[in-house]
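User: For my dataset I need records formatted as: sequence, then structure tokens, nothing else. Please produce one.
Assistant:
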Amino acid sequence: MKVNDFVNLIFLLCIIINYSSGEQLQCDYIKHSDGYNCEMRSVFEENKEITSVIGEHKFGKNDTDVEVFFITDSSKTKFVPTKVCGVLTKLTKFDIYGTTISELKKEIFEDCTDLKKIVIKYVKLKTLEEDLFTKVDNLESFVLGFTHVEILPQKLFANNQKLKFLDLSFNKLKQITTEFPNTLTMLSLMNNDCIDGHYDSRSLSGSTTIDKLVKDTYRKCAPNKTSINSNETSYEAIRASIIEDQISENENKLNALEADIENLEVKMTNKIEENLRTLKAFKSDTSDKIDNIKKEITGFEKTSKDQSEKFMTSKNKLDKDLSNINLKLEKNEDLKRMSGDLRAEINRNENLLVTLFCFQLVMIAAAIFFGVYKNCYYNRNHGARLVNDQTNPNF
């Protein structure tokens, strides 16, 4: 066997071993408002480490574009796969919905360094591991609801120093022992067994933190778990005492509310009277303004009428001037025609004069020619007669 073939065989064996110890994650890829989602379709009968993902991507996306991983409440899986963030490396949100899920291992959130929000709802959890979120350094929001959790571990959020939003509503919480980070700005404990409250940054005064506020408010609801399990009557007594305190507090709030209502009635009456006075003053001022506007409109109408009459007068004058101009233009046209006729007549006369002049020249030339001819003829005849007379004395 060649060295290259041996190396390829070793590599193939490593791949086979790797896949035999892991599992493929089957995803339906969906695009939601919170990002590109992977909805898990695999069903796991035990905690399996994910080594690859299969599924048909959409919108030209790939595994590095997946931002949200969620298990729906319709899934029948009993376990959540571990190290999902190892293959879906850009996850920012992790949602777990499933009535058949009863435990969560810390390995689920390994390598989830970019994870910012975790939602766990409708699961049969009774507790959470204390180091569940140890490696989720950037966690900002955690929602836990509709579970059977009675107590949260004290150090559950010890490494989550960026946590701001914490919703623990609709669980079975009976006591508060958890240490909340000072970065927390909203905490909801609504609809728990003996805890029911909502806190945000507006509830704080001075240097009071949400953690201190919750502990002070529910200090009577924090017996140790052993006493709750061993002595239910003691717990009921504590709960009854809490209810009495709440009733007393509510009565005080009700009395204060009644006083506030009375003060509000007085304030409203005074405010209504003040508004009526303001309305009357406004009405009077408005009437004066309306009268002034009417006067301005009347003046504007008169001015407009005068301007209109002036305009019509100017228009009529302009029309008359235009008529005169047109008449003059027509006369000028007649003069032009007469001038043209006269020029043509002059041209004809000039031609006639030239003809007459030429005729006169011809006549003069003819007269001159005739005179010269006559003179020549006379001289010749007279000369001949003289000769005859000289040669013929009898003549």
